[in-house]
Structure formats: structure tokens, C-alpha cells
């Protein structure tokens, strides 16, 4: 029996998230395991009059690539992939790997080389997204591999995923319009600010956001959503931060990551596990040692860590910082083949200051107009 939440999600993504119009060219891409959502989204996109291109990937290709590709193949950028990002009006991505650890044993230098090669495509994506020429959204399919990472049964994980997206509501689109309004109050406040300071266990870090734009993430980009983010002034980041949860990138986990910044750059990187990988990613290119994003998680329907950044960075009462490429629309100019989000939990004693004033304590905003549990 078909889960009615699949149809609800497809309608939300096509009608609300990327707002497809007749004549739009939309690329739908996803792992083979996400086929049920690809089908529903394909149907919904056609009903809205869009021209639909589907790019369905099969498992193990990335593993084969990193095992077999020579130096020239590692540097090659597919002109077909570039064309897709240059010409699509909208992009809808579904994630649902069968093995989230498939690349665990790949040499970090090979991962870095492949990421560096994609810088040109990343720039096209970032620039077209910033200008509004490309509308995009990505979402997680509740698959066994991700359920195992989250230490849940598949049924439990399905409830978690769909609950985080308010898909059990009678009308999820109405729910996300309400969430958008609450987050906009916080976004408007932050767009008048100059500096953010984060204080938590083994953490005291600050960055300037003067002249930068804060973005309200209300279901039009990643889904489920629930954050506000900006691009820190590149040379302004000072202090140290200890990330609360394992930082996951390319299937690799770094536990107990601690970064020290001076004049915007990482000057010291430590970790309890995965330190060599962490340092390799930070040294990937000229921009990978700087912050491209600073953000606040506002989705209080997400309450636990699941080893999936899509959800973990949205946990209400957390902040996250991303090493590497920044989003052009924020005003951030950092360019890199890396974009790695890492999460710091403020729910137990953490404090968030804006222009010297405390706005959040223990993960709860003091202003009732801002998002609340």
C-alpha cells in the first residue's frame, strides 16, 4: 500500500519548494533506492506543466570511481553535468544510499582531488542559485542505511523523517508557510546585526556578519528545513569551537573536532578520531580553511543526532559552521571544493549572543517571536 506522505512530499517539493511553472525545465536526481519518491515527484512535476529530466544513479559507482580512476579521470568534469546545472530552472535531489560508509577507506587526497575538480560546477550552482535562476531542493529518503546510522528501525526512521517535515499534518504546505513567518522574524533581526558570538563547552567563537545577508531556510532548499544562515565576513572569525557531534563528510566520521581560528583561518585542527582526514580536508585548497557559512538550527521537531547533516544541522537549539565554499547570496566570497557543516549543541548551557546581547540560552530563544519548541 502506497504511503500517502510520498504524494504529500512530492506536491510540497514541486508546488512550494521549487514552485514549478508550466514550461520550467526541472532535473530530478536521486539514488536508485529513492525510486518511489522519484516516481511521485515525476508525476507531480508533469502535472504542473514542467519539462522533466530524470537522473537516477545506481549504487557503487562512486566506490568504483575512486578505486579505478587515474589522475586525469579524477580531474575530468562531465560537460553533461555542467550543462544540467547551467540550463535547468529547478533541481530536485533525493538522497538514499544503500551504504553510507562505502567511501570510508578512500584516500582523503583522492576525495579532495575529486572535490577540487568540481569547483567549476559548484560555482555555477552557487551563482545561479544566488541569482534565482536555479531553484533547488534536496531531501532524504528513509532508507535502511540511514536508519542504521541513526540507530533506528526503518519504521522508526520513516516516522522521524516525515515528522521532521510536518508531513503528518493535513496540509504540510500551510505548516511550512507558518514556520516561514516565525523564522522571518529572526532573520529580519539578524539582518540588522553586526556580530555573532557562540559560547558553549570548550567553545567561544565570534564572527562578523556586518553587511552580510541572513537567509530564511523555510523549505525552499533542503527539506526538511529549519535554519537561518549567513556567510561570515571572511577574515573576521576568531576563537575556538568544539563540535558536539561527529562531523560526517563523504561517509567519513570525525569525532571530537576542535578548531581554532585566527583572522578567519583555521590555525589549529584537532580531533579525537579522524584527525588526519580533518586536516586533509582543511588543506584541500585555499578556501577550505575558512568559514563559508554560519547558521542557527530552528527545527524543534528534530531533537536527536542521526549522523545525517540534513537533519543534524536543523536541530532546534544548535548552531552549525561550514568550512569551505560560501553561498553567494549571503555576500560571502569564499570559494572552495569543500562545504562541510559541523554542529555545536547549545541546549545544555550554551549561549548565543548578537551584538553583545544574549538572544538564546540552553537552545531556547528569549524573544517569543522567534522560533520556539
Short précis:
The protein is an alpha+beta fold and 373 residues long.
Structure description:
The protein has 373 residues and is of the alpha+beta class. It has two domains: 4-164, Thermophilic metalloprotease-like (3-Layer(aba) Sandwich), CATH 3.40.1830.10; 178-365, no CATH class. The protein contains twelve helices and 20 strands. It has helices spanning 4-17, 35-47, 61-68, 71-75, 79-87, 108-117, 119-131, 144-149, 154-164, 172-190, 275-282, 309-312, and strands at 25-31, 51-57, 90-95, 135-140, 195-200, 203-208, 215-217, 222-223, 227-230, 238-242, 247-249, 252-254, 258-262, 265-270, 291-297, 318-324, 339-345, 351-354, 357-361, 364-365. The strands form four sheets. Strands 14-13-10-6-5-18-19-20 form an eight-stranded antiparallel sheet. The protein has a five-stranded parallel sheet with strand order 2-1-3-4-8, with helices on both faces. Strand 1 (25-31), helix 2 (35-47) and strand 2 (51-57) form a beta-alpha-beta unit. Helix 1 packs across helix 2 (35-47) and helix 5 packs parallel to helix 7. The chain is globular. The model has no long low-confidence stretch (mean pLDDT 94).
Amino acid at each position: 500500500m502506497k504511503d500517502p506522505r510520498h504524494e504529500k512530499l512530492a506536491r510540497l517539493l514541486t508546488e512550494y519548494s521549487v514552485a514549478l511553472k508550466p514550461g520550467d525545465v526541472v532535473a530530478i536526481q536521486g539514488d536508485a533506492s529513492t525510486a518511489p519518491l522519484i516516481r511521485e515527484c515525476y508525476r507531480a512535476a508533469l502535472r504542473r506543466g514542467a519539462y522533466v529530466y530524470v537522473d537516477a544513479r545506481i549504487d557503487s559507482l562512486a566506490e568504483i570511481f575512486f578505486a579505478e580512476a587515474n589522475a586525469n579521470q579524477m580531474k575530468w568534469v562531465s560537460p553533461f553535468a555542467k550543462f544540467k546545472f547551467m540550463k535547468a530552472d529547478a533541481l530536485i535531489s533525493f538522497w538514499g544510499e544503500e551504504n553510507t560508509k562505502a567511501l570510508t577507506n578512500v584516500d582523503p587526497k583522492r576525495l579532495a582531488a575529486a572535490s577540487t575538480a568540481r569547483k567549476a560546477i559548484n560555482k555555477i550552482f552557487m551563482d545561479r542559485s544566488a541569482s534565482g535562476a536555479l531553484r533547488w531542493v534536496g531531501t532524504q529518503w528513509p532508507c535502511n542505511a540511514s536508519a542504521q546510522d541513526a540507530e533506528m528501525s526503518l519504521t522508526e526512521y520513516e516516522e522521524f523523517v516525515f515528522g521532521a517535515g510536518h508531513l503528518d499534518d493535513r496540509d504540510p504546505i500551510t505548516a511550512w508557510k507558518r514556520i516561514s513567518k516565525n523564522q522571518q522574524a529572526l532573520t529580519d533581526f539578524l539582518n540588522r546585526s553586526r556580530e555573532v558570538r557562540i559560547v558553549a563547552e570548550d567553545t567561544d567563537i565570534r564572527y562578523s556578519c556586518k553587511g552580510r545577508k541572513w537567509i530564511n531556510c523555510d523549505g525552499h532548499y533542503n527539506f526538511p528545513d529549519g535554519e537561518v544562515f549567513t556567510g561570515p565576513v571572511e577574515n573576521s572569525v576568531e576563537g575556538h569551537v568544539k563540535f558536539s557531534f561527529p562531523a560526517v563528510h563523504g561517509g567519513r566520521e570525525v569525532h571530537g573536532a576542535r578548531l581554532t581560528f585566527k583572522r578567519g583561518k583555521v590555525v589549529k585542527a584537532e580531533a579525537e578520531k579522524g584527525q588526519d582526514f580533518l586536516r586533509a580536508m582543511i588543506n584541500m585548497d585555499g578556501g577550505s580553511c575558512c568559514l563559508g557559512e554560519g547558521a542557527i538550527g530552528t527545527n524543534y521537531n528534530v531533537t536527536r543526532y542521526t549522523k545525517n547533516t540534513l537533519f543534524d544541522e536543523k536541530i532546534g537549539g544548535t548552531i552549525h559552521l561550514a568550512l569551505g565554499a560560501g553561498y553567494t547570496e549571503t555576500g560571502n566570497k569564499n570559494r572552495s571544493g569543500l562545504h562541510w557543516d559541523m554542529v555545536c549543541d547549545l541546549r545544555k548551557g550554551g549561549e548565543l549572543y548578537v551584538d553583545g546581547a544574549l538572544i538564546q540560552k540552553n537552545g531556547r530563544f528569549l524573544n517569543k517571536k522567534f522560533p520556539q519548541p
